[in-house]
Write a structure and sequence with these properties.
By secondary structure, the chain is α/β, with parallel strands linked by helices. Helices cover 31% and strands 17% of the residues. Strands 1, 2, 3, 4, 5, 6, 7, 8, 9 and 10 form a ten-stranded mixed beta sheet that branches. It has a single domain, classed as Aldolase class I (TIM Barrel), CATH 3.20.20.70. The protein is built from nine helices and ten strands. A hairpin with a 5-residue loop joins strand 7 and strand 8. Helix 3 packs across helix 4.
Length: 283
């Protein structure tokens, strides 16, 4: 797959195995990881009380102007590791008590991750796997993960092509994202919690509220309620702040207003959605 890379919707068709060819994600066939640790800042059923075993991958197939992790996604900070190293990281996080293995920005590393998971499972890994992505995922690649990923935690960033093109250089994001969400839901269904309120399977969609309704929250919630399931769990996030290139751009060069977040909450309710997690608005 890496010899003629079409793993993600960009379909760059570069030979990442050669070492010198890199697509829009900016990485070759080598795994590059920024950190692997217990993370307590995810949604309650993901972090739980013992933390989520989070592995942050470097690079990204999007170019979001406001990325809050741009040092990882755009500058690609991190260290190269082997497939064996990745498997060891997963097993170490399990040993430390993690509720799950949380793969952050995995879309451009699916073949390498699959190889690492195989080794980790042979070594005794039993934790649920969380696929924590931007939601810009190719359906055909997701189908390879059917039966392997227990929890999908994708973003739904935009409802309009104009916003996707302007702020992430991905005009096809809305259609690609919606197809990916449907495939994820087909595989794992609604979010299922155990007796301790920890997620063990299912779909959890993240939606970051952006200034001036750039994200198109109304349309996103209507899609989820009408075309996926009104029982879909949604994390409605108020944490936006201008980072990276957004500091110099109109509309996105400020934090969201309380009124904008309340409008998104109202849209969530009007759409008929009832499950999810509200991030308190912080002035």
């Amino acid at each position: 797959m890496l010899d003629d890379c079409a793993i993600c919707p960009r379909e760059c068709h570069v030979d990442r195995s050669a070492g010198s060819d890199k697509g829009i994600c900016g990485v070759d066939s080598r795994l590059k990881v920024s950190s692997a640790n217990l993370h307590f800042g995810e949604e309650p059923p993901i972090s739980g009380v013992r933390g989520s075993g989070t592995i942050f991958f470097s690079g990204c197939n999007l170019k979001c102007v406001f990325c809050q992790n741009y040092a990882l996604s755009q500058l690609r900070h991190g260290e190269y590791i082997t497939i064996d190293n990745l498997a060891d990281m997963m097993l170490d996080l399990q040993e430390r008590g993690a509720h799950n293995i949380n793969l952050v920005t995995p879309s451009h590393y699916v073949p390498q991750i699959m190889a690492g998971l195989l080794l980790a499972c042979k070594g005794g890994l039993t934790l649920p796997i969380v696929y924590n992505s931007s939601g810009y995922d190719k359906v055909e690649t997701l189908q390879l993960l059917d039966g392997i990923i227990e929890i999908y935690m994708p973003d739904m960033r935009y409802a309009s092509k104009d916003s996707a093109r302007c702020y992430s250089t991905a005009v096809d994001y809305p259609e690609v994202n919606r197809a990916a969400i449907k495939e994820m839901h087909r595989q794992v269904g609604e979010l299922v919690l155990d007796k301790h309120e920890i997620a063990i399977q299912g779909l959890l969609v993240r939606h970051l509220v952006l200034p001036e309704n750039i994200a198109g929250s109304d349309d996103v919630f209507k899609f989820l309620a009408d075309e996926v399931s009104p029982d879909t769990f949604v994390s409605l996030m108020s944490q936006y702040f201008p980072a990276h290139r957004a500091l110099t751009m109109n509309k996105v060069n400020r934090r969201i207003l309380n009124s904008e977040y309340q409008a998104a909450l109202n849209s969530f309710e009007r759409a008929g959605l009832g499950n999810g997690f509200i991030q308190p608005y912080d002035e």
